[in-house]
């Protein structure tokens, strides 16, 4: 079960998925990055952080 929280009028998962490790830290490659994002979506994640840098 995935927990959700209200973010203003928007409902999102309580825990987000940060994508920076897919490129800068680990450089998993395009295909593995896509598979990882799909796995997060399939698990019910709706909070995906796509910030360029932190």
Give the tags.
globular; 2 helices; 54 residues; alpha+beta
Please specify the SSE layout and strand pairing.
Blueprint: E1 4-7, E2 10-13, E3 17-18, H1 20-25, H2 30-42, E4 48-49
Parallel strand pairs: 3-4
Antiparallel strand pairs: 1-2
- Please give the domain count: 1
Shape, please? globular
Q: Strand count, sense and closure of the main sheet?
A: 2 strands, antiparallel
Total number of beta strands = 4
- Output the helix-strand order: EEEHHE
Strand order of the largest sheet: 1-2
Overall structural class, as computed from helix and strand content, comes to alpha+beta
Strand content: 15-25%
Helix proportion range: 25-40%
Mean pLDDT: 85
Total helices: the number is 2
- Based on CA atoms alone, the radius of gyration comes out at 12 Å
What does this structure look like?
By secondary structure, this protein is α+β, with helices and mostly antiparallel strands. The protein has one domain (17-54). 35% of the residues lie in helices and 22% in strands. It is built from 2 helices and 4 strands, in the order βββααβ. The strands form 2 sheets. A two-stranded antiparallel sheet has the order 1-2. Strands 3-4 form a two-stranded parallel ribbon. It is globular and about 35 Å long.
Quick structural summary:
With 54 residues, the chain is α+β, with helices and mostly antiparallel strands. 35% of the residues lie in helices and 22% in strands. Strand 1 and strand 2 form a beta hairpin.
């Amino acid at each position: 079960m995935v927990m959700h929280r209200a973010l203003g009028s928007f409902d999102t998962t309580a825990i987000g998925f940060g994508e920076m490790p897919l490129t800068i830290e680990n450089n998993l490659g395009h295909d593995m990055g896509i598979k990882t994002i799909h796995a997060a979506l399939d698990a019910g994640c709706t909070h995906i952080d796509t910030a360029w840098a932190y």
